């Protein structure tokens, strides 16, 4: 059975002391609450270790926002899968649209990272999603299909089953413009069908597909009630402990 997963992508926000405060506040907000979702935070690299030590006796799990696909070596400024494991990461966000558009990451490069994450026992959160122009020219499904097929290329069924997919329409990220629950459900159902094609029905049923793009406490319940929306990848609204708590508790 697939799990609901609510993940907070902090992006390039919060210095060390702010990160410590945010995760401590989140821990207290969730203390004693019944959680119906796996909760993940993805702080910047420099705060991973401090955040890990604070969440160790809590249900909160740790993700990184990116990594390189090589084991080690002359890759100035990059971070490897084993480094992320060594500070306690269990998950890594890969192929976020900001990585694709600002840092020119290709589907092929992202696929290498997905394989490297899995080989190192890190669970990838593979992001996909179309631009506004692509949506307006009815290319959403084509774009998503290409990103998913390329991102999961050469993975075994077992590896696909471990991968989390995040559908994040670019036009909804940071814009306050959320995909309607129906628009999101349509793409999520399409992705699940694609997973059947790539692997099989039982694998497809077990893959968590998160929605991301202006998820807020006032729209999360409706989005998360859709049958193929299995959680959220939250940006802006995860930077305040109370709004992230409200999203988590809306599952
Ligand atoms: P917002 O929630 O700020 O739109 O960001 C979504 C996102 O990009 C999460 O990865």
How does this structure look, described?
With 251 residues, the chain is an alpha/beta fold. The protein has one domain: TIM Barrel (Alpha-Beta Barrel). Helix content is 43%, strand content 15%. It has twelve helices and eight strands. Strands 1-2-3-4-5-6-7-8 form an eight-stranded parallel barrel, surrounded by five helices. Strand 2, helix 2 (48-55) and strand 3 form a beta-alpha-beta unit. The protein is globular and about 45 Å long. The mean pLDDT is 98. Bound molecules: 1,3-dihydroxyacetonephosphate. 1,3-dihydroxyacetonephosphate binds next to strand 8.
Task: Give keywords.
single chain; 251 residues; alpha/beta; TIM Barrel; 12 helices; binds 1,3-dihydroxyacetonephosphate
What topology emerges from the helices and strands here?
Layout: E1 5-9, H1 16-30, E2 38-42, H2 48-55, E3 60-64, H3 81-86, E4 91-94, H4 97-102, H5 107-119, E5 123-128, H6 132-136, H7 140-151, H8 157-162, E6 164-167, H9 181-198, H10 201-206, E7 209-212, H11 220-224, E8 231-234, H12 241-249
Parallel strand pairs: 1-2, 1-8, 2-3, 3-4, 4-5, 5-6, 6-7, 7-8
The structure holds 1,3-dihydroxyacetonephosphate.
Please write the string of helix (H) and strand (E) elements.
EHEHEHEHHEHHHEHHEHEH
Strand order of the largest sheet: 1-2-3-4-5-6-7-8
Q: N- to C-terminal separation?
A: 16 Å
Compute the average pLDDT: 98
| Uncertain parts | none
CATH architectural label = Alpha-Beta Barrel
Q: Mind telling me the CATH class?
A: Alpha Beta
Can you tell me the number of structural domains? 1
Query: How many helical elements?
Result: 12
Major sheet attributes: 8 strands, parallel, barrel
- Taken from the alpha-carbon principal axes, the silhouette is globular
Distinct ligand kinds? 1,3-dihydroxyacetonephosphate
The CATH topology annotation reads as TIM Barrel
Summing up helix and strand content along with how strands pair, one would put the structural category as alpha/beta
Q: Indicate the multimeric state.
A: single chain
Helix content: 40-55%
C-alpha Rg, in Å? 17 Å
Q: Which band does the percent of strand residues land in? A: 5-15%
